[in-house]
## 1
Amino acid sequence: MASTIILVVFLVFFFLEYSTDLTLTLLNMSYIRKRAGTVPPVYRPFVDEATSLKAAEYAATRSRFSLAAGGFSSLVVLVFVLGGLFGAADRLLASFSLGLYLHGLIYIAGVSLVFSIVGLPFALYGQFVIEERFGFNKMTLGLFFKDRLKSLALSAVIGVPLLLGLFFFMEKTGPWWWLLAFGAFTLIQFVVSLLYPTVIAPLFNKFTPLPDGPLKEKIEALLASLNYKVRGIFVMDGSKRSRHANAYFTGLGRVKRIVLYDTLMKTLTEDELAAVFAHELGHEKRAHVWKNLIAGLIGSAAVFFVLNLLLPWTPLYRAFGFTAPSYHALLVLLGLCSGPFTFFLKPIAAAFSRKHEYEADRFARQALGGDAAPLASALLKLSRDNLSNLHPHPLYSFVHYSHPTLPERIAALEKPMK
Ligand SMILES: [Zn+2]
């Protein structure tokens, strides 16, 4: 009885998530269609009518694609849940009597593999058909699969010890296992954050220190005026995969880095690049990396606490086709079936991220002596070159956008400084 209720509650949330997403996307698509070809005033010096039409088509194509891809993966999850396939696979594996740890590892690896194979045709289509058509793709099939294999190897290197550790804590450490597991998880997260800039990211891209020249001089002058040192300013060969341009801040403590994509360097002037740099520096100076890390830790502590409550609850496992509670079943349910319950937290995370973007923009303007023009033109050029949607539906951007829309950002930049 209880397991039927659990299943019904899951299905209700599942359809709620799907229909919300569908409604938002359709709203957004019709909003774009009605405005395609028009250029909002703030974009006018940079974006012409033809680009606006192309951006609208790009947004519509990506929306249709995400509906198809998202719909299909939801359908597969549903087939697995309602068809009892999670439990059937588990029972089949149990017949080999592999022992708790090996069984758990193989089960989780197998389920992850199945779902990544299901997503593969969509990933290929997105990259080699859609991105290609709009002139963004620069990846070869060889590089695509090489990336996949590297990511797989990386998840094995990080995931296997993590899973074994989790199983160990669940089995051996009594009622406080979840706190110990959380501690170990946090430690691994810190290590990964520390290793990311110097060990993990270079597996996928080449990072070269920003060469000497007028840009470097500008940035160094900016850093000196802020009395601040950043050890690493790097240029990344983003162009080997895509024409999309970006910049980001990464790392903690001594391995802090600001990374500019080579694609960014091609289109922006030195003043604009310095402004983008100042924005990224703003993320660091306003402690956004730490804040995100701490928010992530609070989130994962909550997840471990909930897992602890759910671990012995047999009806939960029955609802999803398992015979009895097991560690690996709980982790698979967390990975594949918790989405509909956490989906509604997404707008909160997006709102925090947008707040950080405003703060970084404000910092950049102050650092540049109050001059907002280079940052504004950099953002407008980036938006044009990335074919960003000029007409997002307000509800859609509220839920999905990690950055404020461009008109919002420019308006905030143009407000008088306090
Ligand atoms: Zn930012």
## 2
Amino acid sequence: MKELKPPPLLLLGPGPSNVSYRVLRAMSTPLLGHMDPRFMEIMDEVCQLLRDTFQTQNKMTFPVSGTGSAGMEAALVNVLEPGDKAVIGVNGVFGARMADVAGRCGAQVITVEAPWGQPLDGQQMLEAMRANPGAKLCGVVMAETSTGVLQPLQELGAFLKGTEALFLVDTVTALGGVNVEVDNWGIDVCYSGTQKCLSVPPGLAPITFSPKAMQVLAKRQSKVQSWYLDLTLLQKYWGSDRLYHHTAPISMIYGLCEGLRIIAEEGLANRCARHSAAAAYLARGLADMGFGFYAAEGYRLPSLTCVFPPAGWDVEAVRKQLLKDYDIEVGAGLGAVAGKVWRIGLMGENACVQKVNVLLGALKDFA
Ligand SMILES: Cc1ncc(COP(=O)(O)O)c(C=O)c1O
């Protein structure tokens, strides 16, 4: 049988992003057992590096086994019980997924909607919380990957700090590339995915729970409906008890550890500045070529730029040709803008001028 040999592509879509050789090498190092004390040292290092990246002191901070959606499920299933109210902002695919998952937990979901490409209206979110005083949580997506919108969080966080409700935030397309300040912004439950700005393959979902969220978990009347994602069980493996729960994905945790070390070496602030600078450079290059921008000005994500190619371009044909003839992946549009936009990710390893120049150079062939 032939050896598996996928081509080395430039992954400028909505994720996965390219992974450094350091991370790939770490992932190919020998396996340790998931109960080996030497593996536990690595687990502890991962938890601390994740706290640094989330900018939190939360003890309960670890990577959930599974992709970003497992992080979303873990976030919601642990705090929601049947009959609870959950206010969720929806301005794209991932807000809608959050509302769907909350509904599957048996919650009564109150959605606050904004048009795709626009941020959620903070005042409307506050009004929805005031109109539903017992609501257990308020959930928003910080970086809406379907539209490229960056959601401001501070005002909502400050309001929720003074209430019983939990502030739950999806940072899948932000963590490690866009500043996320869990403690300063009053976020109680926050999750991400490894395959975007962290530049690690897909497979783990970093998550953090504040002491307020842990109290909600402790006061539950019913068991968490998912055994696999039940934090009361998982904390016995990730915490000091070290009780077996499930076999940890060892090589993924090695990869995440190395990816987080790279972030620590670069410095989080430097890394976020690099993402912003690369996105600004891309935006200038695309604007010069006649591209239009989907996300409202002032709310554009550094990690993902959603654009309308110039009039006359066959949006899908050019995207496919970029992949076939240039080894460059850019993402297709979703939902209402499927076939109309591209989603260009500059995440982790790829957030740099050199990678942008490769893309812009290729695009000139179509102009
Ligand atoms: C904002 C957001 N949330 C959740 C997810 C789900 O993550 P995954 O596809 O890794 O399960 C994604 C994936 O793109 C995302 O962009």
## 3
Amino acid sequence: MATTPAPEQDIDTLEQIHADLAARDLAPAEHLVDGGYTSPATIHRARNEYGIDLAGPVRLAPTARALPGFNKEDFQPNWEEKALTCPNGATSPPWKPTLADGRPRLSVLFPRATCRACEDRPKCTGNVDGKGRHILLLPQPLQEIQNRVRKEQNTRPWQDRYAMRAGCEATVSETVHAHGLRNCRYRGTAKTHVQHVLTAAGTNIIRLSRHRPGDGSADHLASPTTRFRHLCQQLSEETRIRHS
Ligand code: SF4
């Protein structure tokens, strides 16, 4: 499940939404969001600062697809001893604190000799020049969240729960592409907000107008036929009649 990280301002917006909801005592127990908003850090902050269970897929390791072998979460950390145990039972020397993109990380390097002698080395280290497996861990609370969510998001119960978001992206896409939500007609955030509210209301009215009282079939919820689709149907019908 690949995701693209959201820009910092989007993360700030999420934080602001949570802060505003909490200030009005309206913080939800659970908030399902697009994968761009979920990282171990945002999940941790939402839980600890606002009591919100932020749910969304976290990014897989960049090498997960290229190396379908052992991922970071397959290694067992010993936080007291500051060591990792690999799936083949080898234990690393104590990890060292480091920085990656200015953020604190823990650098774990398995001994070269141990990995060279390992049959699983090609699918673990991914290198052929005999280096030991190198792993960067997040600080403990974040690493535990990343491990947990990466495992959970592959399970059916998690996917069923997340499926409640189905339709959100389609609605956003509809307001953007069919109703011009990204083109602001006004100046200033107050008027822009009015445009957003009116667009949302208009979207709901259009949807309601399409919703004919049900006759028991699923047809009454079907999307209207686009002109292009209508043309295709017309042409295929004409072709069918010509050949019959
Ligand atoms: S290559 Fe090294 S770290 Fe990977 S499974 Fe083998 S011994 Fe463990």
## 4
Amino acid sequence: MACCGNGGALEKTASKTIEAKEIVEKVGKEPEYAIPLLQEIQKRHSYLPQDLVEAVSAEAGIPVANLYGVATFYSQFRFKPQGKYLIRVCHGTACHVAGSDIISAVIAQELGIEEGETTADALFSFEKVACLGCCALAPVVMIGDKIYAKLTSSKIKAVIKEYKNGKT
Ligand code: FES
């Protein structure tokens, strides 16, 4: 019996094509929709999966190089899957003065990753961001949609421990 053995790959391609159609129908297909198209992809997947970007490119008739040109220009877009918990460390002026460098160093040490990386167990991603809009509470870290304020080395260690233990 003949078997091509790539049924899974074909199914995956078909599902990406269907999803790309949905995205383009929802957002639009003119070149000026490049940013909203990429935002919609990222909203669904938390990053830009290459196969879906290519499928959207084909569906919208926008060259894939143009989509990647836009995506690499804006820091909001991610090219790798994100961990379950995204840790955003504020490095705005107030937080910087209040010690955000130390907070970032502690996070990097506790998780064994650098900024922009994801832990091997896919639990945490860590990034530095500009002002989170609550400067009076500096230094501030946001994990998911929760804000952690007036942090110290020991406080952020305790917070990370809680997430590792699933107590959040
Ligand atoms: S500088 Fe960190 S919240 Fe504004």
